[in-house]
Amino acid sequence: MSSPPAKIRKEETKNNGQNVAEVEETDINQEAVEAIDNVQNKIDALNEQASEEILHVEQKYNKLRKPYFEERAKMIEKIPHFWVTTFLHHPQVSMLLDEQDEEALQYLTKVEVQEFEDIKSGYKILFHFKPNNPYFENEVIHKEFHLNDSGDPSSKSSAIKWKPGMDLTKRNTAMQQKGVPQKRPHTDSESFFCWFNDHTDAGADELGEVIKDDIWPNPLQYFLIPDGKEEGDEDSDGADLDDIAEYDEDDDEDDDEDDDDEGDEEGLEDFEGEGDEDDVPEDEDDDDDEADA
What we know:
Blueprint: H1 20-76, H2 82-89, H3 99-105, E1 108-115, E2 122-129, E3 140-147, E4 153-157, H4 168-177, H5 206-215, H6 220-223, H7 237-292
Antiparallel strand pairs: 1-2, 2-3, 3-4
């Protein structure tokens, strides 16, 4: 007689057919996620508080730096072509300048960055030019960047009042269409001054960010770069000092050789002189002896 079939143990299930263990694991995971989310909210609140405090600190120090920026600007105005030289020495900005841009920027006397009272809302860059600028009538042209309440970036700028036949934003394109070569072309076909009219992507305006964050805090570091070199070149003052040291050593050796030659000549003169003095008395004695004979 065959034995009765073994009873199969059925796992407990809930009404929806889900395994009890799986349900418990899901409940645990959900509780962990909610706990993590609560902690994350506290972290985000602290980050927001920190941002507000950092903003207040930046506003405070912007006011403290302002008189020093003004003092620096007065000193810079005493140096001819300071700003165009600074731009030409900057590795990124120099790529945007052609020969005509350089000529126009010779009349640039002052660059100024003004951050808005609410730093997060944007900033303004001003370019001051000499009154006798032959290219345009403006003594000041500017471009400013804004962030609205929703965080969307935008920009606007002053219109450049070009003098007749001097509009570089049109001249470069016309010259290139005619095939006129330029001594120092840049990577883009547009003039540097086209930047003032370009508002297509204010949120990714690299030139504005470079001027505000890199050049404006310390323009002197680029002005002092020797022509033909860029910041970070490995040529150091140490090599120059070594060359000077080698030059000095050569001079010392030449001086030593000259001293030795002079010493030898003096020795010969002394030797010849002493010989003459010794020979004269001997000759006189010999003459007397012959006379007596």
